[in-house]
Design a protein that fits this description.
Helix content is 40%, strand content 22%. With 400 residues, the chain is an alpha+beta fold. It folds into three domains: 2-118, Histone Acetyltransferase, domain 1 (Alpha-Beta Complex), CATH 3.90.360.10; 122-258, Gcn5-related N-acetyltransferase (GNAT) (Aminopeptidase); 275-400, Arc Repressor Mutant, subunit A, CATH 1.10.10. Strands 8-9-10-11-12-13 form a six-stranded mixed sheet, with helices on one face. A three-stranded mixed sheet has the order 2-5-6. Helix 9 crosses helix 12 and helix 13 (326-340) crosses helix 16. The termini are far apart.
Length: 400
C-alpha cells in the first residue's frame, strides 16, 4: 500500500514549474502566459521528479522588463513523516532559491508593486539593430552590453537563471571578466500610452585572445525564451553578433562553444544565406569543388572559419545539385564522403605507423584495422545524417 501511495505522489518537475513574463497585473491570473521548462535535471536531478505533494505548482514569475522575480509554491497537501510512516517530502524551496538572485519576492502583492517600475525601464548598453516582424506590427531592438555597462551585472544575475531550465549543461558565467559581451533582444511595445520593453532572449560572447594582437570571439550561450520562439528572433540575434564583429579588422573569426543541434541548424542557415551572396560561392564556382578562395572570402567578409565555410559550401552545392541526375548526385555524395572520411584516414595512417613501430602481439591485436565493409556502412550512415541536416537548412532558405 505504501509503495502505491508513494508512486502516486511523484510528479514531473517539468510539468509543475510554470514561468511567466509579466507585463501587467492581469497576466498573473492568465494561464495563457505560462511557459514551462524544457529541462529541470540541473536542479532536481536526472529523474526530473518531485515527491510528496498533492496538486503542486511552482511559480517563477518575472516582470517582463526589469526581471524582478517572484517565487511561489502552492499545493493542497504535503507528505510529512508523522503522516507517512517517516517519509519526508522533497525539499523545493532551497533547491530553487539558491539559484535565484537574492531579494526575490515570495509575496505577490510586493511583486505587483515592483511591476509598476517596469514602465521606467530603459535597455542597457548600445543599440545594435532594430527591426519589425508580423508585417510591422511587432518591433524589436537588440543591444550590446559589457561587464562595465552600468547596472547590467545585477540585471544579468536575474537573466541567467533561465539557462538552468532551457540550456543543457548550462553554468553561470563569471560576469566580472571583462572579455564577456552580452547581446540582448527586447520587444518594444506600447502599453497605456507608455513605451515598454519585454526581454525576449540574449546571447553571451567571450572575446578570446588570438596571436599576435587579435581576438577570436566565441559564442557561448544563446537563448530565445519560449514565448518568442519560431518567429526568427534567433537568426536576428546571431546576425547582429556577426555584424558587430564583421567590420573589426582584429577579429580573426567567430567560433561557437559546443553548439547544440538546434543552434547548428540556425548557424548553417544564416551562414548559407550570407555566403550565397559572395562571389566565390556563385553556382558556377560551387561546381568546381571547395576552393581556398571560398574559405578566405568567408573569413575576411563574414568572419566564418574554414571548417564552417566548407560546411556551407556543401549546403549550397546540394541546393544546385539535381538529385535525380545520377552522375551529378554521385559526384556530390563522393565529395561530401571524402570530407567525412578524412578523420578515419588519418586514424588509419596513425595505426599503420604504430604497427610498423611495434611488433608485440598484444599491441598488434589492439591496433587491428576495422573491417572495411563496416566503415563503408558507417560512412554511408554519416552521409545520410548530414544530408538530412542540409535539406532542413535548404527548406528554410527556400522559404525566404
Amino acid at each position: 500500500m505504501l509503495k502505491n501511495s508513494v508512486s502516486s505522489l511523484v510528479v514531473s518537475s517539468n510539468e509543475v514549474i510554470e514561468f511567466k513574463l509579466v507585463r501587467q497585473v492581469a497576466d498573473i491570473a492568465n494561464d495563457r502566459c505560462i511557459f514551462r521548462p524544457v529541462m529541470s535535471h540541473q536542479v532536481f536531478g536526472d529523474r526530473e521528479s518531485i515527491f510528496g505533494y498533492h496538486d503542486l505548482r511552482i511559480k517563477l514569475y518575472y516582470t517582463a522588463a526589469r526581471l524582478t522575480t517572484y517565487f511561489g509554491i502552492s499545493y493542497l497537501d504535503r507528505v510529512t513523516p508523522d503522516k507517512f510512516e517517516g517519509v519526508q517530502a522533497d525539499e523545493i524551496f532551497d533547491k530553487i532559491s539558491e539559484k535565484l538572485q537574492p531579494g526575490f519576492h515570495t509575496n505577490l502583492d510586493d511583486f505587483c508593486s515592483d511591476l509598476e517600475k517596469d514602465v521606467n525601464f530603459v535597455p542597457f548598453g548600445e543599440l545594435q539593430h532594430a527591426f519589425t516582424t508580423n508585417d510591422g506590427t511587432r518591433t524589436w531592438e537588440i543591444y550590446m552590453c559589457e561587464v562595465t555597462t552600468p547596472g547590467f551585472q545585477k540585471y544579468h544575475e536575474r537573466l541567467q537563471t533561465f539557462i538552468l531550465w532551457f540550456i543543457d549543461a548550462a553554468s553561470f558565467i563569471d560576469a566580472d571578466d571583462d572579455h564577456w559581451r552580452f547581446f540582448m533582444i527586447y520587444e518594444k511595445y506600447s502599453q497605456d500610452g507608455n513605451t515598454c520593453y519585454a526581454v525576449a532572449g540574449y546571447a553571451t560572447v567571450y572575446e578570446y585572445y588570438a596571436y599576435p594582437d587579435n581576438t577570436r570571439p566565441r559564442i557561448s550561450q544563446m537563448l530565445v525564451l519560449p514565448p518568442f520562439q519560431r518567429i526568427g528572433l534567433g537568426a536576428q540575434l546571431l546576425d547582429s553578433i556577426y555584424r558587430h564583429y564583421a567590420s573589426q579588422p582584429r577579429v580573426v573569426d567567430i567560433t561557437v562553444e559546443d553548439p547544440s543541434d538546434e543552434f547548428q541548424r540556425l548557424r548553417d542557415f544564416l551562414d548559407a544565406r550570407n555566403c550565397s551572396r559572395l562571389p566565390s560561392f556563385k553556382a558556377c564556382m560551387l561546381q568546381e569543388g571547395f576552393q581556398e578562395n571560398m574559405a578566405a572570402e568567408a573569413k575576411s567578409k563574414l568572419k566564418i572559419n574554414k571548417k564552417q565555410a566548407r560546411r556551407v559550401y556543401e549546403i549550397l552545392r546540394l541546393r544546385m545539385t539535381d538529385i535525380h541526375n545520377g552522375e551529378q548526385y554521385r559526384r556530390y555524395r563522393l565529395d561530401v564522403k571524402n570530407r567525412l572520411n578524412i578523420p578515419y584516414q588519418k586514424e588509419q595512417q596513425e595505426l599503420k605507423r604504430y604497427k610498423e613501430r611495434y611488433k608485440d602481439g598484444d599491441i598488434q591485436a589492439a591496433l587491428s584495422f576495422a573491417d572495411p565493409s563496416q566503415r563503408l556502412e558507417s560512412l554511408d550512415r554519416q552521409y545520410r545524417e548530414v544530408e538530412a541536416q542540409y535539406l532542413h537548412v535548404l527548406q528554410r532558405l527556400e522559404s525566404l
